[in-house]
Amino acid sequence: MAQTRNFIGNVNYTTVVDSTVVPESDHREPLKHLLIGSKKTVLSTIHYLHVLGYAHATDWSDLIPTNNPGLVCE
């Protein structure tokens, strides 16, 4: 059974994350993510992942409109 989680678009970006928590590895495999939601939520999630040190905000492609009004994918 699939579970859906809702994310709040106004995330506090002042959180400091210790980058030593996840050591750098030369053996990382690329993983692709697909974000679908409102423009505000998708951009907020991208910036939150950047704050966490998971992915740089500039690593993402441009927003792509979907057939559903108000939704974009990244």
Summarize the helices and strands and which ones pair or pack.
Blueprint: E1 36-37, H1 39-51, E2 64-65, E3 72-73
Antiparallel strand pairs: 1-3, 2-3
Structure write-up:
The protein is 18% helix and 8% strand. It contains one helix and three strands; from the N terminus they run βαββ. Strands 1-3-2 form a three-stranded antiparallel beta sheet, covered by helices on one side. It has a domain at 30-73. It has one helix at residues 39-51; strands at residues 36-37, 64-65, 72-73. With 74 residues, the protein is α+β, with helices and mostly antiparallel strands.
N→C terminal distance: 25 Å
Given helix and strand content, the structural type is: alpha+beta
The main β sheet shows up as:
3 strands, antiparallel
Q: Tally of extended strands?
A: 3
Oligomer: single chain
Strand content: 5-15%
Q: H/E order of the elements?
A: EHEE
The strand order across the widest sheet is 1-3-2
Radius of gyration: 14 Å
Name the overall outline: elongated
Low-confidence stretches: none
- The number of helical elements comes to 1
Descriptors for this entry?
3 strands, about 20% helix, alpha+beta, single chain, about 70 residues
Short description:
This protein has one helix and three strands; from the N terminus they run βαββ. It is an alpha+beta fold and 74 residues long.
